[in-house]
Amino acid sequence: MTCYRPIIPQVYDDAYTYYEQLCALQKTLKDTLEWVDEKIAGYEDTTDEKIKQAVDSCNSYSDKQNKLLYEQIERELTSIKLDGCFMTDPWTGQVVKISDVVNKIIATTNTGAFTASEYDALELTASAYDAKELTAYQYDWLGKTLLP
User: Fold this and answer.
1) pTM to 2 decimal places
2) 94 and 133 in one domain?
3) Close Cβ partners of 86 (under 8 Å, ≥ 6 residues apart)
4) Among 87, 117, 91, CA closest to 104
């Protein structure tokens, strides 16, 4: 609230009283602060929007780069042929195909999988098996606990 009142001073000259000068200064300061607040508010909105755009752009670029990287890794991994590679079997000491060693490791560590005879002994029908809604991973690794 301002105390400035445009009145004619008691003495008919151009001079303001000390009180009138303070009121005029108060009004000018108030107007200046309002102007600064308006400019800052506009600047904050603009700055926030630019920051958001920059972050979105970085995220989009990062997502694209990650997707390209994963696709490249997948292409590289699928192009590897293990059948032509050999290594020393850690159990027998013989030189065998890498795929044989990997299969042996999986077979010895996977104690939750069924053998064919164990699965046949369950006498599950196809509809009973489907009702369990198992993923391939669950069947391969947890079959004995999930299919009693």
Assistant:
1) 0.29
2) yes
3) 95, 96, 97, 98
4) 91
> Domain range spanning residue 32?
1-80
> Is the same domain home to 8 and 29?
yes
Indicate if 46 and 114 belong to the same structural domain. Answer: no
Domain count, the chain: 2
Collapsing DSSP states into helix, strand and coil, what is residue 146? Answer: helix
Q: What is the pLDDT of residues 13-63, one digit of tens each?
A: 566 677 777 888 888 888 888 888 887 776 666 777 777 887 777 777 777
One-character DSSP codes across 8-51: --SSSSSPPPHHHHHHHHHHHHHHHHHHHHHHHHHHHHHHHHHH
90 shares its domain with 74: no
For 75-102, how does the pLDDT look when each residue is reduced to its tens digit (9 = 90+)?
Answer: 777 777 666 778 888 888 888 888 888 8
Whether 18 and 43 share a structural domain: yes
